[in-house]
Amino acid sequence: MAAGTGRRTFVAVLVAMLLVGTAGTSIWLMASSGVLSFGGDQQLPGAPGPGATAPVGEGALAAAGGFRVSPPRDPFAPLVTAPTDTAPETSSTTGGETTTTGGGTTTTGGGTTSTTSGGTTTTTSPDTPAGRRVTLLEIREEGGVREAVLTVDGQTYTVRVGDTFAEDFKVISLGTSSGVFMYRDSVFTLAVGQSIIK
Predict the structure, then answer these.
(1) What is the pLDDT of residue 169?
(2) 20-34, 38-52, 129-143: which range is least confident on average?
């Protein structure tokens, strides 16, 4: 019984000595590398002096201790933005009206719209339409068959499934509040009161 107790005491003393030795070695390593400072004059290797401040560059702020810290950034702002054009002030006259702007010129007259901005000119005339506006006004039932009432560029059409209207449009299917239509080779859906340019 006494031999078992003596063996346990010996193991406990041995473990305690190992722990104390490990702790002492750790303290000696930290003190020799400058991490653990017992005096007021020691500092980390490579750290700036007590009166030194870190240089502040573009996009950085000086913080306590002379470290450079990036300013907060809006996560939704784009990282790269296009430069803004600073076109010289221009003036134009069409049909007795003059429009002067700093960033560009817009001239309207005689059915032609011309927009100039930063050296780029875009001209649109009534001979080249940008598209045809289609609006679904209502869907109703006539004699048990659904009909759609649409306008294409102001012209009203009452059509059923399979009908072709305004030359290039066709009715594919009609629901209670929306319909599926085809313009040439493209299929699109319109709800009542909705319009689209094709």
Answers:
(1) 94
(2) 38-52
Q: Which helix (H) or strand (E) holds 150?
A: strand 145-152
Q: What is the dihedral of CA 101, 104, 108, 111, to 10 degrees?
A: -170
Q: What is the DSSP pairing of strand 133-142 with strand 195-197? A: antiparallel
Beta strands in 49-118 (DSSP E): 61-62, 68-69, 90-94, 97-101, 105-109, 112-117
Q: Find residue 186's DSSP bridge partners.
A: 183
pLDDT tens for each residue of 134-174: 999 999 998 899 999 999 999 999 999 999 999 999 999 99
Closest CA to 85 of 73, 102, 69: 102
The answer as to CATH 2.30.30.830 being correct for domain 133-197 is yes
CA 118, CA 126: separation in Å to the nearest integer? 25
